[in-house]
Each structure stands twice: as structure tokens, then as C-alpha cells.
């Protein structure tokens, strides 16, 4: 393989939901880079692809990206990560960066790509799409994301109430990401609006996966960063 | 395998973009059902999975679903398809229905599922998520669908101008599906609004795939039903 960075979307968590292409390129890569939230943590993405990586002939590098911090605090981590990746590619290595879900939607990869373009624009980047958790959650919740001429919105639930309400009124299906921090407000708003089915999907494809078809059954202990709510007009 | 209907999302077209699970269940199924637009056509989905189906031990059934017709005209086709699938499952067969993209988003499967629930609710249905063309198109166009707290809208471009304009103003990224029939109006609207990158992606993952980073370079001969435009604020 020619030296380059390959962003491999590994899907929501089930190792069987990686694409054939993603699995092949992971097996062929010289180096697999897996992001993790802190030095003491395991890499979620790394653990998902563990069965595809052969440590006897491939190098596995874990890079630390603290989550839930401001852009200014994160930038130095991304720059260091980009420098490390660029150096590997310059030495002729094929580097596969594994990212949960799809590389083009709310992924860690997009930050890495931005840095790489700035500091090492000569590094070739290939993107292998992966299954977003949104699709896996819709299957688990048994809620269509869109039929025929329907409209779909995907947004972080942290938006201020007015815009969230407006979006819920205007779209047939709304997927609320990062919902755990504002769950009570979202639940109250949905009750007030009525006329909608709402399903809370927690950690789809990961340990602790759960589906709640009744939002009132969701307790504080069920809230998780990797969770979402799908709302659909009935 | 236990008798049931399995909806397998086969992704946008590249056979390597099927998931490991989708490929395995297709190989294990007794019957593979592939939809096609008319009796004289080949099945696009069927041709994508041809390399995974073994006709010496598996049955391949093509079902006709005319596209771009009204719901009333289509319903009899879906009912007949659902009856055929239900009969196969009742006889103990495992039936894999292949659908382009993801089964939960703008898929043929959602119509089949609706009919099956009405006429044969006892048939177990399993859904295996697939890669939507939206993600593959974003990778090809090199346009993120969402970063950090951004908002994404997906809608058929056939909506009347006022709502389309409103959505383009309110969302960071907008994916316009089924854009070929209203391409000129969409192009004019985007010119008027300004401040956005727009990429036309034609037949992603299929024969005839093409990417246009300049909408003015898109001629009438480039318009295709399986095409979309990704619009992103800059």
C-alpha cells in the first residue's frame, strides 16, 4: 500500500458493523492509530477493532484526546497527534486512524484532518465511510429516519429551547445527539408538544446498550454521553 | 438460521462498503430478495451483492417496484411483495431483502415493512444497518456533515422554495436529496444566498459516479435520480 493516512469509520461499536473495505484496510495498514479520552482509559475504538489488528506485524498507537473541553484546550492535543501521523506517513507507513461511526459526522477525525491540512498538507488522506450510530439506533428503536419526502434533522440537544422547539415542529424526524446533559429539558419539551414518538437509545453497539421507548422510564443512572433520542411525528 | 426476514442495508454501491454482518447474513440466507424498478431492468441492489450470493444453494428472487409513482399505484406491488416474503418465511426460509443504503432512511424496505406488519405481523424482522449514500457522498465531496455542535438537515429538494431557503439559513450543513428534478432552482437559490460551499454528487458508489465542486459545471446530461447536493456554510 502507498503511504497515507486512512480514516476508517468503524461504525457504532459492534465489530461486525465495520465495512469489508474498512476491515481490509485495517488488516493491511502498517500502523493503526486509536484515539482515547485519557491516558488511563482504554481506547473504545481500539477495543472494537482489536480482532482485526495483528500486533505481531502491525504497530498500534493510542493517542489521547480529552473530551468535552474547549477548542483552545484541545488544539495542542490535535497538533501533536497530527505531527505524529505526518511523521509516520513521511517514513513510508500506511496509517489507519480508527474513528467511531462515520469520519464525516461528529468524529474525532475531522479535528485531526483540520490540523494535518495546516501543518502537513502533503500527507494524502483517504476516507473510508462508516456506519453512523444514528442508523444503528434507528434500527434498534424501530423508528424510520425518513420515508418518501420526509425531512430529517440531526442536532446536538444542547441548543437553546427556542430553536430546538422550532426544529421539532418543522421536521418529521429529529435526532438529538449529546442529549444526556439536557435530558430533563428535552423530555419536558416533548411532553408539552405531544404528537410524537420519542425513543432514548443509550450506547448503541457498545457495552451497556439499552433502548427506552418510554422516556419516563429513563433514570439519572441511564444517562450517558454516547446516547441520543430519536423523535418522530406520529 | 431461524426463519425470518432480514433487511440488509448494502450501502451506496461499492460491494466493499457492505458491513461484515450484512455480508455474512447474505451468504447464510436461504433466499435473497432484490428489488428492481421494472420487469425489464436489472436489480441495482442485486448486482451489487452478486458476488456474495451462491446460486447453487441460494434462491435469488427479484421483485418489481415501479419508482416515482403515487402511493396508491405502488401499494399493490408492495402487498404482493410482502405476501411472497411472508409465504417464504412461513415455509421456514431465511429471507434477506437487500436495500441500497440504510434500511431506515429513504429505503424500499420501509414500504415492505409497513405492508408486512399489516398482513403478516407474525413474521420476525431483523434490520442490519447499512451505509447511507449521504456518508459516502460526504467523503467523496470532502465536506463534513457536522463538527462539534453543528446542525445537519437532510431533505428532498422538492420542497417549496420558502422552506428550502429557511432550512439553508438555519442549518450548518444541508443535504438535498432527489435534487435532479429541481436542480436549476436549487442552483439559483444557492447563488442568491451565497456564503456556502455546494457539491453535486452523482451516483456515488455506482457506475457513472461523479463529483462537481462547481454547480455551474453541471449540465442537463449530468442530472440523475440517484444524486444529491451537500451544502455547507463557509
Compact overview of the structure:
Two copies of one chain form a homodimer. By secondary structure, chain A is an alpha/beta fold. Chain A has two domains: 4-128, 3-Layer(aba) Sandwich (Cobalt-precorrin-4 Transmethylase, domain 1), CATH 3.40.1010; 133-233, Methyltransferase, Cobalt-precorrin-4 Transmethylase, Domain 2.
If you had to describe this structure to a student in words, what would you say it looks like?
2 copies of one chain form a homodimer. The first copy, chain A, has 234 residues and is of the alpha/beta class. Chain A has 2 domains: 4-128, Tetrapyrrole methylase, N-terminal domain (Cobalt-precorrin-4 Transmethylase, domain 1); 133-233, Methyltransferase, Cobalt-precorrin-4 Transmethylase, Domain 2. Helix content of chain A is 32%, strand content 24%. Chain A is built from 7 helices and 10 strands. In chain A, the strands form 2 sheets. In chain A, strands 3-2-4-1-5 form a 5-stranded parallel sheet, with helices on both faces. A 5-stranded mixed sheet of chain A has the order 6-7-10-8-9, with helices on one face. At the A-B interface, helix 1, helix 5, strand 6 and helix 6 of A face helix 1, helix 5, strand 6 and helix 6 of B. Strand 6 of chain A pairs antiparallel with strand 6 of chain B.
